[in-house]
Amino acid sequence: MSDVSRLDAQMAFLTEACRLKSVIRANTLCDGSRYENSAEHSWHLALYALILGEHAPDGVDPARVIRMLILHDLVEIDAGDTPIYAQADRAAVAAAEQAAADRIFGLLPADQAADLRALWDEFETAQSPDARFAKALDRFQPPNQNLASDGISWRDHNATLDKVETRVGTPITRGAPALWDWIAPKIRDWFARNG
């Protein structure tokens, strides 16, 4: 591939990635003023990894986690955002996301496509320490925003304490137990007051 063709492919990918800014999520900003978009979410998670990396289990590489988090929701350009508390056909969502990953990462030159797709796949399977920590952060950010906004998204989706503990507590405990130990009492207190 010539340098010009390579740059054309890279710019096509970057232009397509801009569409992530139009995908609206179920969570509001911390101040509750509006719903965040998926690009804002990805940026915020990268910042979480930068700031909270010291709380990761041994062996986690925060720089790799940041790379994963910047990429992890690009598939929502095609597949949309499925709220964590929504009733959804998870197999159908996963199939739509796989097809989106094929298309979106396929815009890149082959070497970059393979590298970034492998990183996305690693995040999805959450088998490595880096991916488990990235998944934990992806589940840790929304309840923090719910606590800051007095539970707007929890109220919107009729979330229960049991559902929150299952949907966010399990992955956080698996990838960043110190973060779950910190937030769990805050979540339980909110639901005790508002449930």
Describe the structure.
The chain has 195 residues and is mainly α. The chain has a single domain, classed as Hypothetical protein af1432 (Orthogonal Bundle). Helices cover 69% and strands 4% of the residues. It has ten helices and two strands; from the N terminus they run αββααααααααα. Strands 1-2 form a two-stranded antiparallel sheet. α9 packs antiparallel against α10. The termini are far apart. The mean pLDDT is 95. GO terms for molecular function: 5'-deoxynucleotidase activity; metal ion binding. InterPro entries: HD_domain, YfbR/HDDC2. This is Putative hydrolases of HD superfamily. Keywords: Hydrolase, Metal-binding.
| CATH architecture assignment name | Orthogonal Bundle
- Helix fraction, binned, reads 55-70%
Fourth-level CATH superfamily: Hypothetical protein af1432
Please report which band the strand proportion falls in: under 5%, 5-15%, 15-25%, 25-35%, 35-45% or over 45%.
Answer: under 5%
How many DSSP helices?
A: 10
Compute the gyration radius: what is it?
A: 17 Å
Q: Which runs of at least 5 residues are low in confidence (pLDDT < 50)? A: none
* Global geometry: globular
Structural class: mainly alpha
Number of domains: 1
CATH class: Mainly Alpha
Strand order of the largest sheet: 1-2
Protein name: Putative hydrolases of HD superfamily
Organism: Roseovarius pacificus
InterPro entries: HD_domain, YfbR/HDDC2
Keywords: Hydrolase, Metal-binding
